[in-house]
Amino acid sequence: MTMETLLDILRKRRSIRRYKESAIEEEVVDILKEAALRSPSSRGINPWRFFFITDKSLLEELSMAKEQGSSFLRGAGLGVVVCADEKESDVWIEDCSIASIIIQLAGISLGLGSCWIQIRNRMHRDSLSSEDFVRSVLHLHEKMRVESIISFGYPDEDASPIPADQLEYGKIL
Ligand SMILES: Cc1cc2nc3c(=O)[nH]c(=O)nc-3n(C[C@H](O)[C@H](O)[C@H](O)COP(=O)(O)O)c2cc1C
User: Fold this and answer.
1) Domain assignment of residue 64, yes or no
2) Is residue 161 part of a domain?
3) Predicted confidence (pLDDT) per residue in 11-29, tens digit
4) Is pLDDT at 1 greater than 60 in this prediction?
5) What phi and psi, each to the nearest 5 degrees, are found at residue 32?
6) pLDDT class for 2, splitting at 50, 70, 90?
7) How far apart are CA 74 and CA 85, in angstroms?
8) Closest C-alpha residue for ligand 1 atom 19
9) Atom 6, ligand 1: which residue's CA is nearest?
10) In total, how many domains does the chain have?
11) 168: in domain
12) What is the biggest distance separating any 2 CA atoms in the chain, rounded to whole angstroms?
C-alpha cells in the first residue's frame, strides 16, 4: 500500500454528491469523529458540536434543509452536522469551517467522497432559515448555530482532479 500525502489528497479533492448504497463502516466513522475533534480552534475553545447521522430517515429529513444544494444528502451514508454554541466563541464560524474541511479531507484519505452543504445564511423556505429548520429537526437550543452539514459516502461518480494549469495563479498577488 502506498502512503497518500496531504498534497495527493488536495490534488484529487472534488465535491462528490452521488454515493454508493454501501454503508460506511463504524470504524471509518470513528476515524472521522477523531479527525473532527483534532481540528484546531481559536484559543483552543473548541466551541463546535458534531452530529454524526447515519439514520436514513433523518438524513432524508435534513436533505430538505434547502430548496437547492442539499437534496443529495438523502443518498449519503453519513451526514455530519457541524454546529457550535455561539456564546462560547466569537469565531465559531471559522472554527466550524475548519472542522468541516478537516473531516472532508480525512474522508478522502479513507476513500470517501463528500460535499459541504451550507446551512448558515441560507433559507429553507421564504420565511424559515435553513438553520432554524435544522435546529427544529435536531431539537437544538437557539444558541446553537449551524454552519454546515457534510455529506459522506463511497463515491458513485467520477470527478476529475483540476489540472494544475487551470489553477488561478493570478489570484496569488
Ligand atoms: C463554504 C462552502 C459552501 C458550499 N455549499 C454547498 C452547498 O450548499 N451545496 C452544494 O451542493 N455544494 C456546496 N459546496 C461545494 C461547492 O459548490 C464546491 O466546492 C465548488 O463548486 C467547487 O467544486 P469542487 O469542490 O468539486 O472543487 C460548498 C462549498 C463550500 C466551500
Assistant:
1) yes
2) no
3) 999 999 999 999 999 999 9
4) no
5) -65, -35
6) low
7) 26
8) 15
9) 117
10) 1
11) no
12) 52
Better-predicted residue by pLDDT, 113 or 142: 113
What's the 115 CA to ligand 1 centre distance in angstroms? 6
CA of 69 to the centre of ligand 1 (A): 9
Rounded to whole angstroms, the Cα distance separating 107 from 104 reads: 5
What pLDDT, in 10s, does the model give residues 52-64? 999 999 999 999 9
- On whether residue 86 sits in a domain, the answer given is yes
**Chain segment 66-82, per-residue pLDDT in tens:** 999 999 999 999 999 99
Beta bridge partners of 78: 152
- Residues with CB under 6 Å of ligand 1 are 14-15, 69, 115-118, 159
Structural domain for 117, as ranges: 22-156
- Atom of ligand 1 minimally distant from the CA of 66: 8
pLDDT of residue 40: 98
Cα of 1 from ligand 1 centre, angstroms:
31
The sign of the CA dihedral 65, 71, 75, 80 is: negative
- CATH number for the domain spanning 50: value is 3.40.109.10
